[in-house]
Amino acid sequence: MLKSINPSNGELIASYEEMTQKEVSAIISDVNSAYQEWRQTSFSHRSKLMKNAAANLQDRKEELGRLMTLEMGKPFSQAVAEANKCASVCEYYADNAERILADQIIETDASKSYVAYRPIGIVFAVMPWNFPFWQVLRFAAPALMAGNVGILKHASNVQGCALEIEKIFHDAGFPKNVFRTLVIGSKNVKEVIENPHVKAVTLTGSTPAGKAVASQAGAVLKKTVLELGGSDPYIILEDADLDQAITACMIGRFLNTGQSCIAAKRFIVVESILDEFRSKLLEAMKTQKWGDPFDEDVNIGPMVNIWSRDEVHEQVVASIKKGAELLVGGEVLDVEGAFYPATLLDNVKPGMPAFDDEIFGPVASIIPVNDEAEAIKLANQTPFGLGGAVFTKDVEKGERIAANEIEAGCCFVNDFVRSDPRLPFGGIKESGYGRELSEAGIREFTNMKTVYIR
Hints:
Layout: E1 2-5, E2 12-16, H1 21-38, H2 43-59, H3 61-72, H4 76-100, E3 104-105, E4 112-119, E5 122-126, H5 134-145, E6 149-153, H6 159-171, E7 179-181, H7 189-194, E8 198-204, H8 207-219, E9 223-227, E10 232-236, H9 242-254, E11 264-270, H10 274-285, H11 306-321, E12 325-328, E13 343-346, H12 353-356, E14 363-369, H13 372-379, E15 387-391, H14 395-405, E16 410-413, E17 432-433, H15 438-444, E18 446-453
Parallel strand pairs: 5-6, 5-8, 6-7, 8-9, 10-11, 10-15, 11-14, 13-14, 15-16
Antiparallel strand pairs: 1-2, 3-4, 4-18, 9-17, 12-13
Helix pairs in contact: 2-4, 3-4, 4-5, 9-10
């Protein structure tokens, strides 16, 4: 039995009976049959249905936002914004898939030669709870527009969201078995990967989960795209606009209650501006209000569950024991629900959990450095490589550092890291491989076929 529990109060929202192995196999078979017809449909037909899906998301954004907030606790306004962002990715691929996947003529000694981008079949998605709609739609929109079909294993605590996503596609006019949700637990993932009808796997989640799925998929030679953990560094140089930097750092760290792979987790600050940065950041953090995520004044909702809250607190305590200084927060609140306050640690160094590990919650770390060179060195002193940011008034210098020095899949200058349907998204090192979104994302799950005619 899979249970959805409200993290604000611990109350049971709903229970879901897990599908049997026989039921799962039957669904996969039905989806594979649907693929044989779906792959033959025109881009214009797929585009029409995808625009219907976008309209459904926008029309129901408040209803869907409420469901997200109930199941995983994000502030309601952020949940509504997530539904809108999902509509944007549907619109992007509805408008651009045919252009991106057009045959690419290559001049050779043949009379005609080109690259054809063709669908491959069932894409199996293993998705997390933190952005319960966005993580799914950013795989599903390009996959379906490319002529593939999809099956989803969502996180156990957001089954309501998973089933609503399936409904959105069905209500938009997609054939029933072009996109299906499997109500199963993590123990069943390997069996689905090994099903011969499944051709590829995409996972967003923790690094250990990514390694497990990559191993299972590799054993049966199936392609994977993995978007995993992160410990994003934000470098604050001595010539930074501190007000701009503080605003970006606050959004980057505390959006979604800090429960994001691309959250700003390590603030690496040059010593000459450290005092002013610390003072401004501390002042901003003291304005962060935790509480009922449906309250429009609340910035920080509950964490996803008590276990996650306790894990974050243990990381904070362990960092303090190793020399980090607690400036604000850092306490388990004596209230109902999985709440944890905005927390700021200063003088964080390598060897502390706040530096070495991913803290998946509302905790920021200040790391003092002497200069730019040391900042870059510590920014890259991590097993992760998802995102990063640089703050400086010298935009040319910022671009150089972002483009050439920071080891990450994306790096922003004078702004917080976020995904955009028009830009490729993904990481390197233990943050995974492959790309989602943009032209790269839709091509990941196609057969890039060479056609050569003499």
